[in-house]
Amino acid sequence: MSDSSSPSAPPVRAATRDASGAGAHPQAQSDQPVAHSAHVGSQPFVYLGRQPILDRSGALNAYELLFRGSAHNRADVTDDALATAHVITRTMGQLGVPAVLGRHHGYVNMSRELLFDDIVHLLPPGRFVLEVLEHVHLDMAVLERLAQLRRDGYRIAFDDVSALTDNLLRALPYADIVKVDLLQAERAALPALVEAIAAEGKTLIAEKVETSEDFDYARGLGFDLFQGYFFARPQMLHAPQVRASRLALVRLLALVASDVGVAELERELRSHPGVIVQLLRLVNSSAYAPGRPISSLREAVLAAGTRQIARWAQLLLYASGRDLPWASDPLVQLAGTRSHFMELAARSLAPNDAVFADAAFMTGIFSLVHVLVGSTPAHTLEKLGLAREISEAVDGQRGELGMLLRVAQACERGDDRLAEALVSEAGGRFAVLTPALLGELNLWASAWFSAYADG
């Protein structure tokens, strides 16, 4: 559903308790520090709504994730599939699952179109519940798809149920959770509806709980979970928008479709810092996270897998509303040129050390990521799971990678004297980076990015 109450409902707050039962508080509390106030600044933001789902004791059980197109806390949904695509990309790629859900589950609305799309598998089944919208006709094709998704590990919820119908009874074996709309259901028929659903062993959620009387009544009927304005309005989360070029996504999809190897995918991704940022967030948000810091783009590609990359590119392409001129974006140009310069310099320092060259490239890309996403380096790097030497180079310019970054920045400013002084300070194998070689590397890096942008 778009929101768990009517637009006119007053924002009444109930006293609820946390899982330990200690202390009352005016609304459902989460266990993560991501309570952002939505605001509009000079940089574009993306927004996400989340509304708590509580258990019988008032403890937080889960969140329903809701599309928000602006800083105004309202749905404005004209296309269910597109709205859910935005919810997924913002949860998985912009904000990150840990920040949005903490240790709880997320309910995500599903249109018929998305139920049959392979994109749904971007959502880790252990973290998300697929909420089938009320207007989806539960024909045999849909029920068979739900059965397959349940075999894949997903839990299925039926949304906005208000009456006991033959169609509902036929579909109940394919669901795990049923959300009953207290505003739409006839009170006289509710006991029979609840009894029939409970008899099938399904979890019952009372939605659109707007008053203390609604809560007491629903709890008395035997509902397991509760959602509505009585507990909390949807909370607004926001994050700076990280744009991924539509052209980059189309080219990436074409490569995946042609069944190229990891090396070719890696080469394509190197030219698109925005896509790399999204990929790192995906890897760290998914059930396929590598369990160790990522030190190269190749590791990120391998951790995600080509199928997951294709799903992500499809979803980003679907969710993006217009073609973005990435080739003329000065920040993208700088990130692409710097990363390639650092890779070339690293290969000059250690011709046979591909790992070091990859780490240098990643350092160059992520040295500007905090500007790309509008945050501090430390806060941004914390979400990306990069290897320590890369993080320390980006946030503190420490180690050999940090020194390479300082040299790259000096060359970008045309400060040859500083670049030469830094090379001298580093000593050792850095001595190979003569002023003449640095000039050549800078030209090669710029020419490489320009050739790619023009191609």
Walk me through what this model shows.
The protein has 455 residues and is an alpha/beta fold. The chain has two domains: 16-240, Alpha-Beta Barrel (TIM Barrel); 246-454, Orthogonal Bundle (Hypothetical protein af1432), CATH 1.10.3210.10. It has 19 helices and eleven strands. The chain has helices at 80-95, 97-101, 112-115, 140-151, 166-171, 190-199, 212-221, 246-257, 262-269, 273-285, 297-319, 330-349, 354-366, 369-373, 377-384, 388-394, 399-412, 416-426, 435-454, and strands spanning 16-17, 24-25, 45-55, 60-68, 105-110, 128-132, 155-161, 177-181, 203-207, 225-227, 235-240. The strands form two sheets. It has an eight-stranded mixed beta barrel with strand order 3-4-5-6-7-8-9-10. Strand 6 (128-132), helix 4 (140-151) and strand 7 form a beta-alpha-beta unit. Helix 1 (80-95) runs antiparallel to helix 11 (297-319), helix 8 (246-257) crosses helix 11 and helix 9 crosses helix 11 (297-319). The two termini are 44 Å apart.
